[in-house]
Write a structure and sequence with these properties.
The chain is an alpha/beta fold and 192 residues long. The chain has five helices and ten strands; from the N terminus they run ββααβαββαβαββββ. The strands form two sheets. The chain has an eight-stranded mixed β-sheet. A two-stranded antiparallel sheet has the order 2-8. The structure holds NADP nicotinamide-adenine-dinucleotide phosphate.
Length: 192
């Protein structure tokens, strides 16, 4: 069974985008930190992505990606990717076979997504509505965050709702030379 990982960057106050879906606070962030234990930022995403077998995303996240890539530059080429939407969304050229637009609950799609990911991770790209659907169903294994020291004061939340009774065990924490911090939590599948 694939491991389901919600891998995302978050502001210090728990938002993954502004209310109008702006990510400049993340993509243009230029902080620095040279204190004890600082790790170089480079390479972390590439290592994570290498271990991804399939992806799942909500439609707002998908449309943000489409708006920020050039034609034929689908960034997840070669990996099956489920886009959850009630609408008929366009697919970028060259990625027609990789992308599945699905109007379904994650519980209905999980077996297929997990089988496609195989012994690699099923990456929940975002956003909070999708992560919360996995969490509610007890199908979330790991939350892997890059915390950006920026306070947005509002926006699109990391999760859409509370997740009571689910223990989160910190398995990794390290500061980057940018001032961001990586945090990895294992999520108990059964209530703890
Ligand atoms: N900081 C980061 O690293 C990071 C990571 C990921 C995303 N983001 C950003 O965060 C924002 C997230 O946006 P968001 O909170 O609106 O979340 P989202 O999960 O990207 O999109 C939510 C939408 O997806 C559709 N949807 C979700 N579940 C569905 C289901 N089971 N069946 C059918 N449709 C479903 C619905 O829209 P429709 O049915 O109308 O299509 C819903 O309104 C975006 O701006 C994205 O770019 C940031």
């Amino acid at each position: 069974m694939a491991r389901t990982v919600y891998y995302s960057a978050t502001s210090l106050d728990g938002f993954i985008a502004t209310e109008d879906d702006n990510l400049d606070w993340l993509t243009k962030y230029r902080g620095s930190f040279s204190g004890a234990g600082a790790h170089p930022m480079k390479g972390g995403y590439d290592r994570f992505y290498e271990g991804v077998g399939a992806l799942v995303s909500g439609s707002t996240t998908y449309e943000w990606v489409l708006d920020h890539i050039g034609e034929g530059e689908w960034p997840y080429k070669g990996k099956p990717c489920w886009i959850l939407s009630s609408r008929d969304l366009r697919k970028p050229a060259g990625a027609e076979d990789d992308i599945r637009i699905s109007n379904a609950q994650v519980t209905e799609l999980y077996d297929e997504m997990s089988a496609a990911a195989g012994d690699r991770a099923l990456w929940i790209v975002g956003g909070g509505p999708v992560a919360s659907q996995f969490a509610d169903a007890g199908l979330l294994d790991e939350v892997s965050l890059t915390v950006v020291p920026v306070v947005l004061g509002g926006g699109k939340p990391l999760f859409s709702r509370a997740l009571p009774g689910r223990a989160m065990q910190l398995v990794e924490a390290h500061p980057y030379d940018t001032g961001m911090v990586g945090l990895r939590y294992e999520v108990a599948r059964a209530s703890a």
